[in-house]
TrEMBL record:
Protein name, entry field: EF-hand domain-containing protein
All residue ranges annotated as the EF-hand domain in the record: 45-75
UniProtKB keywords: Signal
Gene3D superfamilies: EF-hand
SUPFAM superfamilies (alphabetical): EF-hand
Protein's UniProt keywords contain Signal: yes
Organism whose genome encodes this protein: Pseudoalteromonas lipolytica
Amino acid sequence: MKTMACISIMLASLVSISSYALDLNETFNELDKDSNGALSESEASEDALLHGNFSQIDSNEDGQISFPEFQSFIL
């Protein structure tokens, strides 16, 4: 019985994590107005937190925020 409860909890956690990952992807895609897979400083200005931390988030200093950079900052 305990094994089933643990499995149920693990499955619920996976669903929750997957849902959160989808939300991050949706948020990124909404901000990425030109759909090029990266956020320019102009696109990031739509969100005060991203805009205020743009240079910190842009870890490779290419002038844009990639999804992995966005994800690292949020998580």
